[in-house]
Design goal:
By secondary structure, the protein is α+β, with helices and mostly antiparallel strands. Helix content is 63%, strand content 11%. It folds into four domains: 2-238, no CATH class; 245-336, Helix Hairpins (Orthogonal Bundle), CATH 1.10.287; 338-403, Roll (SH3 type barrels), CATH 2.30.30.60; 411-492, Alpha-Beta Plaits (2-Layer Sandwich), CATH 3.30.70. It contains 16 helices and ten strands. The strands form three sheets. The chain has a five-stranded antiparallel beta sheet with strand order 6-5-4-3-7. Strands 8-10-9 form a three-stranded antiparallel beta sheet, with helices on one face. The longest helix has 35 residues, at 160-194.
Amino acid sequence: MVLRIVAVQLLLNAIIALPIFGLRGRLILSNVPDWATLLLIAGFLTNRLFTGIGAVFNFDNASAIARYFKFGALILVLSYVAELLIQLQSGSDAVRSVVSFVSVTVAAVALWRFLALLKVNMTPNEGETYNLSGLIAKLVYRFCLIIAFAAPVLAAIGFVNGAMALIFPAYLSIALIGAILILQTVTSVVLSAFMHRNADEGDGLLSILMAFIIVLGALPVFALIWGASVSNLTEIWTKFQDGIAFGGTKISPLDFLKFVVIFTVGYSLTRLIQSALRGTVLPKTKLDTGAQNAIVSGLGYVGIFLAAMAAISSTGLDLSSLAIVAGALSVGIGFGLQNIVSNFVSGIILLIERPVSEGDWIEVGGQMGYVRDISVRSTRIETFDRADVIIPNADLVSGVVTNWTRGNKVGRLTVPVGVAYGTDTRRVENILLEIARDQPLALLDPPPSVVFQGFGADSLNFEVRLILRDINFMNVVKTEVNHQIAERFFAEGIEIPFAQRDIYIKNLADLTKGTT
């Protein structure tokens, strides 16, 4: 698009230089680059927003939306052309009013159709609500819709300048909003590639911060579109630069911008280093997954802390003036937030000592499952019921934790089994050993064993013990062992007893006499 604008400008400069045009012709040609720029910008915005490859919005009626916006931009350009021709021909106010009324009305109709087609895609589905961006879009829609109805009415009753001061800035504002959306999308894609993050995973803190900066930078442009002068903006900026007093130090917008930039750079570098360590450096080391996650998490906390300290120092804020207030608050915070502080310290201990790591199978407080995330305050465990259990880190540090997979996945499986009295115990032991040794996940060193536990109330009790190379498959192996035990015992004629009791009633003869 930039190359096209430059080419048009160079071509028109060459044409104007020819001695074939008079004063009026040169005046008209000198305005052509501005008109061409407006049309090229309208085409570029509609292409990137609606109809082009990789457009920001994927609407079914995208072509119609783009067509109405480009038509409105064309009407805007034609109105400027007509205004210039009327001035050159010294046209009357009546002619200007009629031409302006027609252009305003046509532009308003195009704007109304553009908004109506957009509203079809803006309406949330049943059961859904507007998010923040949706609410902003809804407000912009209503504001522009009011303009689309008010501008022709003002032009019809003679307020032509007021009508044009409404309808054409509305188009320019929509174009600026489209440019903001395109720039925000490009920034989000670049940051996603920079952070090695999928663009579909949602906006991170950095993306939201960049979007805020883009919108903040566009505010002066909005003001210029709606009639503010450069001198007005300069005066406002001068007053704003005086800053606000904080802790005995006056902070100006430049200091705030410096704070944001330094913190953003520090935050970005921290995430970049974390991403490089997680994806490139640490996988090539001999560290286990838990150690890798601990290093990445610890580096993230340190990096964000250093970025915040560097950003605060850059503003010249004297933190010593806040020391007394901070000291007084620390006492109250120490009592009120002692559990949070305890969990925070416990989280740091977990990251350093690593008694549990992400992916470990643990049992704590009657809860058993896999560790999915360790944060500075709590640890998230996914149980075998696929439920997430949040456990405070202090409970993991001070309580008793059973870690089934710490260091390795080797673990012991025990399968109890009982047989009827009178069964050959040696024969039962040999059968159970054969079944245990045939399991693919059972280690042969140490070998499986069978223990004759003793004489129960209803059965002779045995216990099969196997060392599995992966304890995560404990239930699978246990199920298979039980199936094979049932099949072999049935084939060998070995009875698996069940609990049964004989009840003897004393003085039965006396009881029967009383009933006869």
